[in-house]
Structures are given as structure tokens and as C-alpha cells.
Amino acid sequence: EAGVAQSPRYKIIEKRQSVAFWCNPISGHATLYWYQQILGQGPKLLIQFQNNGVVDDSQLPKDRFSAERLKGVDSTLKIQPAKLEDSAVYLCASSGGPGAPSGELFFGEGSRLTVL
Amino acid sequence: GDSVTQMEGPVTLSEEAFLTINCTYTATGYPSLFWYVQYPGEGLQLLLKATKADDKGSNKGFEATYRKETTSFHLEKGSVQVSDSAVYFCALSGGGSYIPTFGRGTSLIVHP
């Protein structure tokens, strides 16, 4: 079974530029999450999708971050314009396969963003 | 809201030493509890889980018991190996919030 795919793995941009990250979840997983992991901290949820609807985006900085999950499969997270404090690893996870208990997440390898 | 508190790291041990990483949680209701592990350069992966009080999760020699009375889910291993060096995250889901919530992680370094 293929895992969660993310790209790019690494991205370096100047502040005020824009960046987009892509995620393809495990086939059949209805729920998709984007987490931000700042160095030395635990993952912080940015947005949670159930199929193509947003379940929770209360911690997404909506003035600069946006995310979509068209057709309820893959998803894109965009940052525009980027700030220095956006430097982090952006983790995509999915869950909800048959029989999977609530909260058991499958993570991609992450996309590391450096903002200069 | 729900929260998870882990002990500060790094935890540095010699090979074959006993490991404990403390985790306590705050949640309404009856959450499921998880330990995830993140090896260098990789994403998080599930290590073990427990879904109700007094359940013991175990995997790869690691164990953790869901203690409702102390709201704890401490991770233990009797004899660590160099290959166990990683960051360990305690997490919960399904308490007062449906959002999976993670602790800040504890780095484990095992020396030969």
C-alpha cells in the first residue's frame, strides 16, 4: 500500500514570496490533515478535511495561508506572502481507512520550508 | 481544550538501559492515546496505541499503559538500542475535541 506522498521535500524562499505544497493521501482515506511542525515543537494542526469539506481550520492563519482539497483526494497548502516565522516542516497526514480507530494518523515525510 | 504534556528532552542513554518517557494529558471524555516516533529525516509513524483505560499498547519492545486515574500514558522500554534514537510524540484523539493533539516531542539519544 502506497503511503502519504508529499512534495516538494525542501523549499527555500525569500520572505514575501509564495509557496505551495502538495499532498496525496493513502487511497480510501477520507480525512486529510495539514500540520505545521516548528523545530523543537510538536505538530500543530492547521486544517482538517473530511472528504472535500473543511472540518476545522481554526488555527490556519487565513490572511496568508490557504488550503484546498478538490475532489476529496489530494490537497494543496499555499502560503502567500511568506514570513520568516513560517519556516517549519509542513506535515500532511491522512486517516479513516476501513476499521481504523479514530486518531490513528498516517504521515508523509513532510515538506521543509526555509524562509530567508 | 485537550492538551498533552511530555517530559523535556533530550533523554540520553547508553545501549541496553531502561527507558521511560513521561506523558500526561488533559481531556474531557475518554480519548484514545498514541505514541508516534519520528526517525531522522522521516515523517511520524505510529508506534503504539491504547483506546480505553487500563489498556496496554505495545510494539517493538515499547509499552505504555493508559492510566485514567493519573491521566498518564508513559512510554517504557526495558533495553534500548542505538536504532531507537528518534523523537517520540505522545498524542490523543477523541476526547473533548476531535482534533488529534500532539505533545512537543521528546528526543531520545542512545549511545553504543
Tell me about the largest β-sheet of chain B: 6 strands, mixed
Assembly category: heterodimer
Percent of residues of chain B in helical segments? under 10%
Instruction: Give the overall average pLDDT of chain A.
Output: 91
How many DSSP E strands of chain A?
Answer: 11
The tally of strands of chain B reads: 12
Strand content range of chain B: over 45%
What portion of residues of chain A belong to β-strands? over 45%
* End-to-end C-alpha gap of chain B: 41 Å
Task: Kindly report how far apart the N and C termini of chain A lie.
Answer: 37 Å
Largest sheet of chain A: 7 strands, mixed
Order of helices and strands of chain B: EEEEEEEEEEEE
Q: Count the helices of chain A. How many? A: 0
Name the structural class of chain A: mainly beta
Low-confidence stretches of chain B: none
Instruction: Give the % helix of chain A.
Output: under 10%
Biggest contact = A-B, 24 and 26 residues
Describe the structure.
The complex is a heterodimer of chains A (116) and B (112). Chain A has strands spanning 5-7, 10-13, 19-24, 31-37, 44-50, 53-56, 65-68, 75-79, 88-95, 106-107, 111-115. Chain A has 116 residues and is mostly beta strands. In chain A, the strands form 2 sheets. In chain A, strands 2, 4, 5, 6, 9, 10 and 11 form a 7-stranded mixed beta sheet that branches. In chain A, strands 1-3-8-7 form a 4-stranded antiparallel beta sheet, with no helix packed on it. Chain A starts with a strand and ends with a strand. Chain B has 112 residues and is mainly β. Helices cover 0% and strands 50% of the residues of chain B. In chain B, the strands form 3 sheets. In chain B, strands 2, 5, 6, 10, 11 and 12 form a 6-stranded mixed beta sheet that branches. Chain B has a 4-stranded antiparallel beta sheet with strand order 3-9-8-7, with no helix packed on it. A two-stranded antiparallel ribbon of chain B has the order 1-4. The A-B interface holds A 4, 33, 35, 40-45, 48, 55-56, 91, 93, 101-110 and B 4, 31-32, 34, 36, 41-46, 49, 51, 89, 91-94, 98-105.
